[in-house]
From TrEMBL:
Superkingdom of this protein's organism: Bacteria
Pathway assignment: Cell wall biogenesis; peptidoglycan recycling
Domain (Mur ligase central): residue spans on this chain: 110-290
Pfam families per UniProt: Mur_ligase, Mur_ligase_C, Mur_ligase_M
Enzyme class: ligase
Name recorded for this polypeptide: UDP-N-acetylmuramate--L-alanyl-gamma-D-glutamyl-meso-2,6-diaminoheptandioate ligase
SUPFAM superfamilies: MurCD N-terminal domain, MurD-like peptide ligases, catalytic domain, MurD-like peptide ligases, peptide-binding domain
Keywords, in A-Z order: ATP-binding, Cell cycle, Cell division, Cell shape, Cell wall biogenesis/degradation, Ligase, Magnesium, Nucleotide-binding, Peptidoglycan synthesis
GO biological processes: cell division; cell wall organization; peptidoglycan biosynthetic process; peptidoglycan turnover; regulation of cell shape
Cofactor(s) the record lists: Mg(2+)
Organism for this UniProt entry: Panacagrimonas perspica
Family stated for the protein in its record: Belongs to the MurCDEF family. Mpl subfamily.
Originating gene: mpl
Catalytic activity: UDP-N-acetyl-alpha-D-muramate + L-alanyl-gamma-D-glutamyl-meso-2,6-diaminopimelate + ATP = UDP-N-acetyl-alpha-D-muramoyl-L-alanyl-gamma-D-glutamyl-meso-2,6-diaminopimelate + ADP + phosphate + H(+)
Length: 452
């Protein structure tokens, strides 16, 4: 069967492409933008990528068109207009997955505003190391697997469960399609201001997910999150197990890691390669979910010590003139704050220079602009790129940072400014949910030129 995927370079849709290719289908795709790691994954899989959304991309006609949620009606997407005019079969990515990959599998879904990619990757790794041969679909590229998705030969399938809408013709959250038996609810905050009017609307979608978990399944819930408590207050029909909760899965600071407790009983000290308190919570959630499918705690603890994390999650890109440059996907104030804190906790006497692109729809609309100064306050200096499509004034919103704030509307000028301020021992933390115009390489090049 020939699948053509519209929006193929999105993290989710690239995973669909990988699964379809592994299943033996011919896969092609269209997208307006492409950047690593998804563009390189598609290239490695030998999947033909066409630039733009031209109707000619669908000649000859594929057997089915899989439509990403980036696609809308109108002149911007002539390929979609051609699909409708020609009566070609089409389906959303989540529905294709639900109908072609997930039937008969024990689905473990990871939902939440933050930490989905890391938690999903870790959970897949724990099951893999326990010999369960899981399938998975992650919104990133786990370094231990090298691909964002695989079918797997075992019964289990681990999926990053996104609350964003499914497609222009299906406004339900993606995760309602997955029907998990094990469901992690990591945390819940307001996000996606382009589709959700308020927090209550997102809570309602999370409760739709809760409704799909069978009574023989299990909900793994952050016990410290009041918003998730409200979600469960709408009704829950499955056993609930909590993490970050003294009665469930919890942790206490220990040298070189943390002491793990399950139901108040110590399971020993855990050595972890993942920095930050947020990753401790992610780990507790993954341990609890793995236990639900029979993975012993001891096996998970041992596997964690060898986990290599995910691309673009505090990933060190390079170093020049004694200045290290890191990349992270953080694009919500809470994610920005905990990422800076995680880097701060790593052994170093150098400063942290935060470099942020407010790129997500919510960031560009300014819905989180009032929280951003506090989020960046843990950095020694903050450099913010002023995109032309921002609906808010960066200098005004971040005035509380005072002299620790730098703004620029030109990427080369931004790179020059960062390199000029950086000194040996400093760590440059770049944060964006896009490619940020290759700013990492620009900074490293300018640093290198200055060192010549």
């Amino acid at each position: 069967m020939h699948l053509h995927i519209l929006g193929i370079c999105g993290t989710f849709m690239a995973g669909i492409a990988a699964l379809a290719r592994e299943a033996g289908h011919k896969v092609t795709g269209s997208d307006a933008n492409a950047w690593p790691p998804m563009s390189t994954q598609l290239e490695a899989l030998g999947i033909t990528l066409m630039r733009g959304y031209e109707a000619s991309h669908l000649d000859p006609a594929p057997d089915v068109v899989v439509v990403g949620n980036v696609v809308t009606r109108g002149a911007k997407f002539p390929a979609m207009e051609h699909v409708l005019d020609a009566g070609l079969p089409y389906v959303s990515g989540p529905q294709w997955l639900a109908e072609n990959v997930l039937p008969g599998r024990h689905v473990l879904a990871v939902a939440g505003t933050h930490g989905k990619t890391t938690t999903t990757s870790l959970l897949a790794w724990l099951l893999d190391q326990a010999g369960l041969e899981p399938g998975f679909l992650v919104g990133g590229v786990p370094l231990d697997f090298g691909v964002s998705a695989r079918l797997g030969r075992g019964k289990t399938f681990v999926i990053e469960a996104d609350e964003y809408d499914t497609a222009f013709f299906d406004k339900r959250s993606k995760f309602v399609h997955y029907h998990p038996r094990t469901c992690i609810l990591n945390n819940l905050e307001y996000d996606h201001a382009d589709i959700f009017p308020d927090l209550a609307a997102i809570e309602r979608q999370f409760h739709h997910l809760v409704r799909t978990v069978p009574s023989s399944g299990r909900l793994i819930v952050n016990g410290a999150d009041a918003n998730l408590a409200r979600v469960l207050g709408m009704g829950a029909w499955s056993p609930v197990e909590r993490f970050d909760d003294a009665q469930g899965w919890s942790a206490r600071d220990a040298q070189d890691g943390f002491e793990l407790f399950v139901g108040g009983v110590s399971k020993g000290v855990v050595s972890t390669p993942l920095p930050g308190l947020h990753n401790r919570s992610n780990t507790l959630a993954a341990f609890a979910a793995a236990a639900h499918v029979g993975v012993p705690v001891e096996t998970s603890i041992e596997a964690l010590s060898r986990f290599r994390s995910v691309r673009r999650r505090l990933e060190k890109i390079g170093e020049s003139r004694g200045v290290a440059v890191y990349d992270d996907f953080a694009h919500h104030p809470t994610a920005v704050e905990v990422t800076i804190d995680a880097l701060r906790r790593e052994p170093s006497s150098g400063r942290i220079l935060a470099v942020l692109e407010p790129r997500s729809n919510t960031m560009r609309l300014g819905s989180h602009s009032g929280d951003l100064a506090q989020a960046l306050s843990g950095a020694d200096l903050s450099f913010v790129f002023v995109r032309s499509d921002l609906d808010w004034n960066v200098r005004d919103a971040l005035s509380d940072l005072g002299t620790r704030l730098r703004v620029a509307d030109d990427l080369d000028a931004l790179a020059q400014d960062v390199a000029r301020e950086a000194r040996p021992g400093d760590r440059v933390l770049v944060m964006s949910n896009g490619d940020f115009g290759g700013i990492h390489g620009r900074i490293l090049r300018v640093l290198g030129d200055a060192n010549a």
